[in-house]
Amino acid sequence: xxxxxxxxxxxxxxxxxxxxxxxxxxxxxxxxxxxxxxxxxxxxxxxxxxxxxxxxxxxxxxxxxxxxxxxxxxxxxxxxxxxxxxxxxxxxxxxxxxxxxxxxxxxxxxxxxxxxxxxxxxxxxxxxxxxxxxxxxxxxxxxxxxxxxxxxxxxxxxxxxxxxxxxxxxxxxxxxxxxxxxxxxxxxxxxxxxxxxxxxxxxxxxxxxxxxxxxxxxxxxxxxxxxxxxxxxxxxxxxxxxxxxxxxxxxxxxxxxxxxxxxxxxxxxxxxxxxxxxxxxxxxxxxxxxxxxxxxxxxxxxxxxxxxxxxxxxxxxxxxxxxxxxxxxxxxxxxxxxxxxxxxxxxxxxxxxxxxxxxxxxxxxxxxxxxxxxxxxxxxxxxxxxxxxxxxxxxxxxxxxxxxxxxxxxxxxxxxxxxxxxxxxxxxxxxxxxxxxxxxxxxxxxxxxxxxxxxxxxxxxxxxxxxxxxxxxxxxxxxxxxxxxxxxxxxxxxxxxxxxxxxxxxxxxxxxxxxxxxxxxxxxxxxxxxxxxxxxxxxxxxxxxxxxxxxxxxxxxxxxxxxxxxxxxxxxxxxxxxxxxxxxxxxxxxxxxxxxxxxxxxxxxxxxxxxxxxxxxxxxxxxxxxxxxxxxxxxxxxxxxxxxxxxxxxxxxxxxxxxxxxxxxxxxxxxxxxxxxxxxxxxxxxxxxxxxxxxxxxxxxxxxxxxxxxxxxxxxxxxxxxxxxxxxxxxxxxxxxxxxxxxxxxxxxxxxxxxxxxxxxxxxxxxxxxxxxxxxxxxxxxxxxxxxxxxxxxxxxxxxxxxxxxxxxxxxxxxxxxxxxxxxxxxxxxxxxxxxxxxxxxxxxxxxxxxxxxxxxxxxxxxxxxxxxxxxxxxxxxxxxxxxxxxxxxxxxxxxxxxxxxxxxxxxxxxxxxxxxxxxxxxxxxxxxxxxxxxxxxxxxxxxxxxxxxxxxxxxxxxxxxxxxxxxxxxxxxxxxxxxxxxxxxxxxxxxxxxxxxxxxxxxxxxxxxxxxxxxxxxxxxxxxxxxxxxxxxxxxxxxxxxxxxxxxxxxxxxxxxxxxxxxxxxxxxxxxxxxxxxxxxxxxxxxxxxxxxxxxxxxxxxxxxxxxxxxxxxxxxxxxxxxxxxxxxxxxxxxxxxxxxxxxxxxxxxxxxxxxxxxxxxxxxxxxxxxxxxxxxxxxxxxxxxxxxxxxxxxxxxxxxxxxxxxxxxxxxxxxxxxxxxxxxxxxxxxxxxxxxxxxxxxxxxxxxxxxxxxxxxxxxxxxxxxxxxxxxxxxxxxxxxxxxxxxxxxxxxxxxxxxxxxxxxxxxxxxxxxxxxxxxxxxxxxxxxxxxxxxxxxxxxxxxxxxxxxxxxxxxxxxxxxxxxxxxxxxxxxxxxxxxxxxxxxxxxxxxxxxxxxxxxxxxxxxxxxxxxxxxxxxxxxxxxxxxxxxxxxxxxxx
Length: 1441
Hints:
The chain has 1441 residues and is of the alpha+beta class. The protein is built from 47 helices and 64 strands. Strands 28, 29, 30, 59, 61 and 62 form a 6-stranded mixed β-sheet that branches. A 5-stranded mixed β-sheet has the order 3-2-1-60-63, with no helix packed on it. Residues 375-381, 595-602, 658-743 and 1426-1441 have low confidence and may be disordered.
């Protein structure tokens, strides 16, 4: 951290708050501002006299410029993102652009009219521009910067004297941000106005303005980015509003989210900042709290809901914080309070490393736990020792019995000897966080080189790395191999056990098929140096990274990548190779919200409750033949902090600490303040080299970390002006810490080794090979490996794995080798089950795998078996709960089974309770009590019982045992009056039986009384009681046998339909037609009633029937009446009834079959009802039938509308044509744009007068329909009309030419008519041209004209093109002009033989002259009168046509 004081110096602090005394920049003049270089330990600063200077950390020296264009105090100074440009501004509004290459050289200068309030460089993304030709080169984009003035002007400037104005904002600008996604500037004013200004190089776009709806005083608004296109906005309350620029939507998160009680917190947020690398939002409050939210979404776009923000930590610092800044690449957060105290929150990276001699776990930022001797997880107290180190531990490595740790400035080597004697051996001054070591050397990463030192700090060797690979990013040590990754995503491996480093794998790009996979987040090499597993991130923009849910395995020998994704909701965060077998490795994962693009399904609350949102550790194996296969998964619960390592048959986990309170106090404590006198600027030094990657549990990459452990540095009393200068692109730390306390290691067995104690190397290698083959699906090969093993535990483990992997075939073999007869029986008895999971669950129950059995049954939703399973193990409440929520149809069955269990256990009371709940109590309780000989209890139960069925059963039981009186009492209690009367009658208590019958009117009792009176011959009473009992047939039988018609009719009025019909038939046969009709009507036998009315000519009754049916609105009767009217051919009445019934199908059918006209009111009613139908197919069918009917009855417009509504456009057009409305037809054709429609419209237009507009539409429609034959035919027809009506051969020739063009250019070559049509048209054109030529030459060359005429007369088919009468008329004109009267007369003779009216072509006077000239005066009448032929009238008609 760099801090500018008012004592003319800049002082530097470590992330622990300790001042770095050897690094102090002190000047004689007052430094007014400074900033960090983005990629190097370099600071640019400005003085109060306008001069500038550069300080370089590696040289611990500075260089001040002796001359400067600035003549007043420097106010602002900034580096560009590449670090090769500097922009500075002073009090007199001068802005200077400098080139920086170790020194400063001026490039250009600007001087706006108003004071410069802010300047900054934008990180342009050229790929976001559509027109790439207008985008400047990248070098040019890197030099572009923005500045805005106190007058609200925003400018875009470069280093070549170009400074256009972008926009002007009214009001004071509170925040200004660059939006890389679409290369725009985001401005927020003091009136809560958000302005988005797109930056383009081809056109000027209008800024988009949005009024933010934020309560409170907008003057206090502060904001920062919180993701891609997502703004975090605060305004002096306890909320952070997240505003999405793309969707214009917002949501909020609150500091109350961190409190379980969700009570309101009396605190306000004063500052907010977001770390893109960690995807963590920091909020500082008035009371000195720092709240952290982690974004757990893998969405590459803006986070759309508050659910993606997980509150995970609160840190206490000094109160009244008014500013917070984070480093995007380091675990450092700086805080400034109102009383000018500065605090730093630094992350501690908790490390874990091990060797064959010892294991070391970091407990806190300065404490290590060292474990030596014996097996992991089985240590006594003397094997463990905690030691407090002198400095914060930034990294840790272990080699044999030595370990090294470092703090970024120094490295310390310790040796661990017997009896836990730990002593420091060496101290090395190394300014790096990339360190590992071996037996005699320390290997250090420094920018683009690897340096090797002795333990005495002497440099032995230096290895340079190609500049294109970038700076070294991280070290990953595994055994004798050192894996090195770089900032430009290259990786290589060195063998560090040799005396001199030897490169084992040359540096390769992290690419697949020439395309970069992502940014390397973590990489681990296996102990044999054959494989590398990579975890990576997607690069969203220059700052934001999104974790990849895939991991990638690189086979070094074949240089081949293997890719695997556990789940869209599982992010891999750590890799652990097995210590002995490089085929086996584990992946530690964290839960993350699924990407918004992939999130289609809605998860129910119940499914959410079952979903695990914590960490999981997955085991995999990899071979070239089988690829990557998953083996098993372990849930990391609250008792486990993380994974230490894998060494089959065991997995080693780190237990959670029980000292949370002590740890919390430690993490929230604030050290005493450091008093200094500071000036106006605070800058954070982000350029600590990253700490060594050392397989650390819970110290995951900052994109994935769920929890942080922050140590609060000492406060610095300052006098500040709220300015923080942060180096934004420092080298990233590869780890971030979490809240962790390790005090022991836990051991878990790999699933195939569970329950085994003595594991020989042969058994171990065999089971590992077996597990690999099982996961690869090689069942036969796997069985060959273990078939000779006799160990029952091994077979039981294999059986449990088979259940988990659902391998039923192998499970049978396992059960046989176990000689587990119960399991084999369960498997055979479940053979009828369709689901494999059910059969597996049956066996799992007998193997004691209760949880797995539950999972299998729930997976296939076989809740019926699951319920039986719970009942079988005595978990009745769970069985009932599942039955209520999942399988309610079996709820009563569940109660019944539980009652059976209680009955078998002789728990009579519980059994009775559950039998009642199963609704089987009336049957099962008496049965149970009788079987168990509990008759006294049964009688007691019945005496208080109110179940009528049970009481009836008990009464019958007593009657069977001869207890008649007691039985009668229970019959009465059960309200079984029939049996009560039966007993009274049997005991000759007639009056009592009659009294009960009259009182209760019970049908059974009435029937018994009727039967009794019939037996004694009292017919009247017998009929009465039979009628009361509902046995009308019995009463009717008696009355009929005794000719009691009055009683029969009364019985008919009370009888059911069948009996009423029977009685009506009785009266019909007896001739009592009125009674018969009435009974038929009562029985709704309308047809019989109507037939009888018609037979007896009782039309009044028939009219009454019709009115009654319509009044009652009984649908069935109305239908029958309508059918009757149809039979009587009274179709109008039948139609009225069907309309009333809204039976539109029948209505339409009636109209169609009998040519009936539907009124407009009826049409409106039908359409209204059809619109309400749900069945779209039926609706369409009926509507189209209605349209057809309307069309037939001439209502074309309404039919047209209906056809259009349901898409039958062809029929709709035909309706319009029937209407003959030209404009509607043209408009409809243009709207429909269908070939058939166009052709119909064109054909219709041809029937009209051929005006220019009509002709144009005809041609257009036929062209759009691509009906080229029709179009050619139209042109021919048009040409014929021009010839026959107008004798306009010139126009006809043009039309023939158009027709020929259509045939040649448009008609398909394979069309059979094309050639013949083309020849025909060419012949017509030829003849038309000859006639036109003859006509034109008739004046100047009459002889040639006559020759052409004679030629035409001899041509074949000339009459189809040119009328012979026109040729002869032309010849006659020529002869007359030459006074060749004999020739004229010859022409007249020819015309006369053609049966034409000659005077239509030659006037009478001319005919007289011709006849007189040839001496035929007497024949004039032959040419001037009607045509001689008797068919004159017809010829005239033909000619006129």
